[in-house]
Design a protein that fits this description.
The protein starts with a helix and ends in an 8-residue tail after the last helix. Helix 3 runs antiparallel to helix 4 and helix 3 runs antiparallel to helix 8. It is mostly helical. The chain has one domain. The chain contains 9 helices and no strands.
């Protein structure tokens, strides 16, 4: 159990999937224009990453027992696509306002490399089921932290700063991400996976 807690904390901080491994940048930059949108996208990513990792873990081990792990990547992608499709249908029916806020970005969770990376990481690191759940929740919460921090800084800068024209928009966003990455590297001694 102790290793699972360490994996959870580490995947949010010094092994943050967005700020250290630089995965999921497209939606991170595109959706981080407001804290509200960032929270919604982050929660959707937490749900999709966790559910797909939980589903992909037993599937991978079934493929391992049959000696067909070479098709695991394809199976992982199909699981991710199906999970996102169910999430999209649920949001459209029960939370239409949030569904409309996401627009094109909700289906893009399917191709968000964070979702697939978590499944590939648990395979490569040979995590147990509990460690996989800890890692998937921690990684997705880490991604939520990154997108909300970025959105908060971008909102504040839009109101109170005068960014030079050459850095406005994506330029300053990449600088902010670099500074956040350096800050998260500071957690390195905390825990490692």
């Amino acid at each position: 159990m102790g290793n699972s807690i360490e994996i959870f904390i580490s995947s949010m901080t010094n092994n943050n999937i967005a700020l250290i491994y630089i995965l999921g940048m497209c939606p991170l930059i595109a959706i981080s224009t407001s804290i509200k949108n960032a929270k919604g996208m982050g929660l959707a990513v937490i749900f999709v990453v966790t559910i797909t990792a939980i589903i992909n873990y037993p599937i991978y081990h079934l493929l391992k027992t049959t000696g067909t792990t070479q098709i695991s990547l394809l199976v992982f992608i199909i699981t991710i696509a199906a999970t996102v499709q169910f999430l999209e249908m649920f949001l459209e029916k029960y939370l239409p306002k949030l569904y409309n806020t996401f627009g094109i970005y909700l289906p893009l969770i399917t191709v968000n490399c964070v979702v697939l990376a978590v499944s590939l990481f648990f395979v490569n690191r040979e995590y147990s089921f509990i460690e996989t759940v800890s890692f998937s929740v921690g990684s997705s919460v880490g991604w939520l932290i990154a997108i909300v921090l970025l959105a908060a800084i971008r909102e504040k800068m839009a109101k109170k700063s005068d960014v030079p024209r050459g850095l406005a928009g994506k330029g300053i966003t990449f600088i902010i991400l670099g500074i956040l990455s350096l800050a998260f590297i500071g957690f390195t001694g905390l825990a490692s996976i």
